[in-house]
Amino acid sequence: MTRLSHRDAVPDALKGAIVALGNFDGFHVGHQHVVREAVEWARAEGRPAIVATFDPHPVRHFAPHVPPFRLTTLSQRQELFEAAGAAAMLVFDFADDLAAMTATSFVTDLLAGHIGAAGVVTGEDFTFGKDRGGNVGVLRDVGASCGITARAISPVGESGQIVSSSRIRDALKAGECDVAARLLTRPFTVRGEVIHGDKRGRELGYPTANIDMGSYIRPRFGIYAVTGRILATGQDVKGAANLGVRPSFDPPKELLEPYFFDFSGNLYGQEIDVAFHHFLRPEARFDDLGALKRQMEEDCAKARELLA
């Protein structure tokens, strides 16, 4: 799959594309409907399909103080877009210049002039341009003046509520892995490089593959039943993970610490995916390491049972 910045020259082979336009963080079931429409439209007309996303998220640009909230990295989104049938991912690098661009210029200069889009698909509630001055109506009207046809996809409902990235974030903050997985159509998954820790898990007989959560949203702190994938080898593993600040140890340090059952090998420096399947319990402080180890044994037994 081709990956482009909006500052790059668009190859001739991608000119005249149908563009799915949105943030697409998480690529949940609603996002999938938007991209599916673009891909099917492109195939029907013999055109390439491009998925356009924003990074950093506009919220991060305008409110850099907000806590981390991402559901997916760019690399994860690229894989998901490719699996959905897109030929390319175009990343709008959101900075001051893009934030100051009017909605009209966004359509005429970027979508039409630079990208050469023939059609654009968005969700009905998508907004763009300076002060969020653009919407589907603007996209249709301005697009029509420069050769772009626009289509809008209605929100997708589930259990009487609209599917949204915000709803998925709320579910994760509550430890509701099943709700998040249903709306995403897959488990929430953190991708990161395994880093060195202080070897506490190893001392207890549970060596962990420590990962910095970076820009990901923080699900409810506690213990989870997880699965993992080692990207270099494709090996799948099962385990239990602690997400939090490890209250039994000083100083507190926020980490995702998965322990993989029946696995031996050196994971330091390797990139792995950790998928959250079940919330087991909140974090707790243990003054006695023996009590902590007994609890870890119970947690692992429960995780094995749930993941069997």
3D structure, described in words:
The protein is α/β, with parallel strands linked by helices and 308 residues long. It has helices at 29-45, 58-62, 74-83, 96-99, 103-114, 136-144, 165-173, 177-184, 200-203, 289-307, and strands at residues 2-5, 18-21, 49-55, 88-93, 119-123, 149-153, 157-158, 161-162, 189-193, 222-230, 235-244, 255-260, 271-282. A six-stranded parallel β-sheet has the order 1-4-3-2-5-6. A five-stranded antiparallel β-sheet has the order 9-13-10-11-12. Strands 7-8 form a two-stranded antiparallel sheet. Helix 6 links the parallel strand 5 (119-123) and strand 6 (149-153). The mean pLDDT is 93.
